[in-house]
Amino acid sequence: MRKVAVLMAEGFEESETLTIVDILRRAGIPCDTFGFEEGFIKGMHHIYVKADRLFGDAIKEYDVLVLPGGRPGGANLKENPDVIEMVRYFDSHNKYVAAMCSGTVVLSDADVINGKQVTGYTGYAEKLKGGIFKEVVVVFDKNIITSQGPATPYPFAYKIAEVLGKDVSQMKEKMLYNFAGGK
Prior knowledge:
This protein is α/β, with parallel strands linked by helices. The protein contains six helices and eleven strands. The relative contact order is 0.17.
């Protein structure tokens, strides 16, 4: 069974991170959060969440690596050389790398978006060096999945589930996503 690893650095965007995990678990996809230290991690809005596991080589057993945004969550991921190396590992092994909001800048620093279509937070076209920036909610190109920001984790998580072979059409109906204007 395919599984997803979601990274949680201090300052992670709670709504992005927890919505992604929630939707993927609802879809029946094993999804674990990974932190960088024991105990609770402080989110951007001072909500403390305990990660399922500690960051390490066990992540290499996963099929998708997810990098949520947040301030300073995205920057904390970007400044961690082990995260950059993990992103490169996933890319070089043709595994999926998914990032949204400020988490997308990690992809640029890891040099995994060259020539690939990407999206990110408003104004990130210049920050996502090497990528072909698109002003759309979610972009999937080769092994890279990107999304824009705090209002977009639903379509982002649905796209991850679809890429992993799940039909999410009924799930969208049950979660009232289509009712709320989602497609």
